[in-house]
Amino acid sequence: MNRKNHLLIGVFLGILPLVFLIFPGTSQAQLLGANFPGDYGLSSATQPPPGFWLSGVYVRYDGDKIVDKNGDSIAVDPDELGELDVNAYVLGGWYVTNATLFGGNYGFMIFPNWSDNTLESPILGLTNKSGTSFGDLYVQPFNLGWHKDQADYLFGIGVYAPTGRYTYGANDNTGLGMWTLEFSAGTTQYFDEAKSWNFAATAFFETHSEKNDTDQKVGNILTIEGGLGKSFMNGGLNVGVAYAAQWKLSQDQLGADIEAELGGYNPGKNRGYGLGPEVVFAIAKNDKLIGTISLRYLWETGVRSSVQGSTFVLTGAFPIPSMSLK
Fold it and tell me: CATH number, domain at 302?
């Protein structure tokens, strides 16, 4: 089986700039960052073959409850809770070149998104469904991919730009009003000679600017995503379990007004984990790859100081033009 077929099982282009700002009451105030856990899964650290790849992503997040820093559900009047679900749509591209640096192929990507909710202030009743509008823009001007005999590696530097609608305290924001710098690195490991068993882990570290027209600043965040899978049909089908984990590494800067109201109370650092099934399959015709489809569903657990729920991700990735499988 050639290297190209192995790479096809890992093509997943959804870099989702969908984000949440959660204010579970002043006693549990938290700010969430730009990386949405669950947007990567099986073969998360595998760069696709050189060429242009067009990707479309749909994400559905359903929030079930708000959890405090001790893991207990916060009792909230349903009439004041607002909406805890999000629909987001991403359409973008990843161009991988034949140029190499340090032995890895150079590539770059750009992913705008559209969303109908940012869960800005659910417990305060300030989050309401709005029309789907343009959100924050993700650009990764630099990524390198390596392909070894039994492993792939990926490194990238990206930026989330505050292009979405944002006004502090508004109930129809579709962006977070801040710049985010993100570094990512990961590996996809293959455990047998045929490369059918695969395990991936990709780490994302993000740091942020202050939010527009405020003195609020989100703490640094670490996210790890990947999955364990088994491929079939010459790499055309990959089935397994995807996972995601996210931790706040440093305390938020909540702003003078909120910090004064807290009176020195520590709301804790939010975290969360997700686990669920994923299937990735290739669409081919006449020995040419038309595209790949990824379906992933994650249930969240172990959440602290945030919303807990479930995530569904549907991704289609298409080489332009179609790619020969020979």
Answer: 2.40.160.40
Q: How confident is the model at residue 2 (pLDDT cuts 50, 70, 90)?
A: very low
Domain span holding position 168: 3-324
| Cα 57 from Cα 291, distance rounded (Å) | 13
- Number of domains forming the structure of the chain: 1
What's the average model confidence in pLDDT over 46-56?
94
Phi, psi angle pair for 233, to nearest 5°: 55, 50
Distances (CA, A) of 259 to 20, 101, 225, 255, 264: 20, 46, 32, 6, 7
* Structure token pair of residue 304: 């602290």
Please report, for residues 28, 57, 195, 233, the alpha-carbon distance to residue 296 in angstroms, rounded to integers and kept in the order given: 30, 11, 21, 20
In the chain, what percentage of residues exceed pLDDT 70?
79
Model pTM? Answer: 0.86
Tokens for 42, please give them. Answer: 């099986």
